[in-house]
Amino acid sequence: MPAQDSPAPHSNEPHPVEPHSAQSRRNDGRTGPQHPQHPRQQPDEHPRTAELTERWNRLLLAARDDASGPAPEPYARDLLRRWAEPQRRYHTTDHLAAVLDRLDELGRDTAHAADPCAVELAAWFHDAHYRPDRSENEERSAALAERALPEAGVPDSRTTEVARLVRLTVTHDPAPGDTNGEALCDADLAVLAGTPEEYARYAAQVREEYDFVPDDVFRTGRGNVLRQLLGLPRLYRTPHGAEHWEERARHNLHTELTLLLG
Question: Which residue, of 48, 123, 144, 212, is most buried by count of CB atoms within 10 Å of its CB?
Answer without folding.
Answer: 123
